[in-house]
What we know:
Layout: H1 2-25, H2 31-37, H3 43-50, H4 57-71, H5 86-90
Helix pairs in contact: 3-4
Amino acid sequence: MAFFKLLLSSLLLSFLILHLVHAQQEPLGHSQTQVSLQQQIDCNGACAARCRLASRQRLCHRACGTCCRRCNCVPPGTSGGQEVCPCYAKQTTHGGRRKCP
């Protein structure tokens, strides 16, 4: 019985140490935390400018808004400029197509 208690406490302690080490190794900011530490951009205004010439305004605004909130960046102009916001350019749909307009 003493061996079982020792084994159980050792395993519990090991998991606790592993959890603490893993928590320290995680970068302080996932994209959400990093975005919250940075200054937020006006996604509505940026997406209105980006989508002003789109044939499907509502779809463009919805996709652009999602990408803007995730990346805190919207490329300038109405199309192209993806190299300015690499995160924005990397967002894809389930089908593998680019998500962000």
